[in-house]
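hi!! sorry for the late reply, been swamped w classes. u asked for the two structures so here they r. pasted raw, havent cleaned anything up. first the sequence of the first protein and right below it the tokens
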Amino acid sequence: MAWHELRQRIPNALTIARFGAIPIFAWLYLEAGDGPAWGAGIFFAAAAFTDQLDGFLARRWHVESSFGKVADPLADRLMIGTAVVFMWATGRIPLLAALVIVARDLVLIVGYKVLAPSGYQLEVTFLGKLATWVLYAALGFVLVTEEGTGWPLVLLAIGIALAIGAGVQYLLRARSLLRQT
């Protein structure tokens, strides 16, 4: 395989690997038991890193794809959603935080599914990227600190506020698109 062909596949391969990482993360989290889950935390951080790396490489090598534009944010939503559900179920994060994150992600996923046939192009905004970065960081810190440590939960609240802001931004853009059609 030529280097050019390989470059076209690497960003999407990283995204697909993030989908595959979800059950491994879940297993590592459950195996950790009570207390800091360092294995799951490191694995979660690696997933966050691949999120940055796949987008960077796709843009740098000019190999952005329709698949990547949909699959990359979906992989993030599923990885973050899995972490949120597991951390809520084990008492690491509050129910309200979990509900807001999961509900916002479900609205975005279902909304995209409904709007895509009418030509809606998913373009991740800077606010959306920032929210994802902060959520990855906050959840990663919750994973590796003692239960009840306050500062990761404050960072999580900031991430949730950013995610809500990004969600509103996406909804306003979608509403504008629907008015044009």
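now the second protein. again sequence first, tokens right under
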Amino acid sequence: MKTTKIITYFDNQGPENTKDCAVLAVERAIELGLTTIVVASSSGSTAREFVKIVSGTNIRLVIVTHAIGFSAPNVWEFDVALADELSAAGHAIVCGTHTLSGLERALSRSSRVGGGSRTEAIAEAFRKTIAVGLKVAVECVLIAADQGAISVTDEVVAVGGTEEGADTILVILPAHTASFFDLQVREIVAMPRNR
């Protein structure tokens, strides 16, 4: 069997694509009969846009946020009131360390240790050869699987972006970080053309 699907290419990366990403992600999830969309959202604004679009569907959002302390010690960037709203509506909030950098970044930035790592090389390859949003979407799926928020046996729609907002949509068969090479990007639904 052969499936033909149109990929949406945004002219540029960035938050101006967020609403279109929400619509496209929900459309593709419904077409495939998927009930979970994993969305990267550091402050909550991207999550807020997705909540509007999933309203009235049976789609559950798994919102993956930065770890506490990502931007400043003891600070969580996500809107706490929104997190409570989302949880009450049945959506999941996952706060986790970046699986494709985390501790590795601390080592490579250290003046005592220095040098890059294999993990950071994978992340940089995703960022530079395909899209930052692809790296973010893959990483969020790994984090969500590791936290038990999604199953590694069910495909999900995954959404990432470049700094702010959403600009990349994938269909992924998840894996846990320890089984990284079992993860499959099965479809690219949308991505920025100019990066």
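hope this helps!! also noticed smth abt the second:
The helical segments are 18-32, 45-54, 80-88, 102-109, 118-130, 132-146.
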